[in-house]
Sequence to fold (228 residues):
Amino acid sequence: MIDHAHDLESVRGATERLLTAAATMDNAAVTQSSRLPGWSRGHVLAHLSRNADALVNVLRGRPMYPSAEARDADIERDAPRPLDVQLADLSESAARFQEAGAAPADWSRTVELRNGVTDSASRVPFRRWAEVELHHVDLGIGYELEDLPEEFTEREITFLADRFSGHLEVPATSLADGTRAWSTGRDADLPEVTVAGTPADLLGWLAGRRDGSALTVHGGPLPSLPPL
Fold:
C-alpha cells in the first residue's frame, strides 16, 4: 500500500536538500550545462518549478499541462532567470504542491498525467519525489545516484522495472543488486538476460542516467530500453 503522506514528507526533505545545494551556485553556474542534453541548470530548475504546479493541476483534476508546447515554452521562458528567482520559484511552487497534497482527498482515485498516462492519486507524491531526486543529480553539483536515499532507490528501480514490463522490444530481463531482484521486459517463463550491479548503477541505467557499462550482463547484450 502506498503511503502518500510519507511520500509527501519525503518530497519535502528532498526539496530542502536540493534548495540548500543549489544555493551554493552563482548566476553563472545556472547558465552552464546540466547533465541533460540541451538543458542548462536553469532549465532543470525551471522544469522542477513548473512540474510542481503541473502536479497540483493533476491533484485538483485539471490537465497537467495546457499542451506539450506550452510546457516546453514555460521551461524555455524561465530557464534564463537568475539564481535567486529560480530558488524562490522552486520554494514557492513546492509549497503549493505540499498544500495541495495536504488537502482532504480520495487518494484511491485515478488521475491523468501527461500523454494520457493514468495512475492512482496516491502515487503522485512519489512521482514528484522522483522528479526532485533525479533532477538534483542532473544538476551536476555534487549529488550523485549513490547519495539517493536507499528507500527511494529501491522503489524507483521497482517503478521503472514495472514500467518496462511487457515491452516486446525488451527481452525478459532479471535484475539483481546482490540482495534484491526484479524482472522487466517481455513476458517469458525464464529470463533471457540477467543484469547485476549496484543499486545506483541499476537505477542509472533504468532512468537513462548511465550507460550501463558498470553492470554485469549474462545471456546477451545489455537491453536497449524505450525512452521514459
Remarks:
- The first helix runs from residue 4 to 22.
- The longest strand covers residues 173-176.
- The chain is about 50% helix and 10% strand.
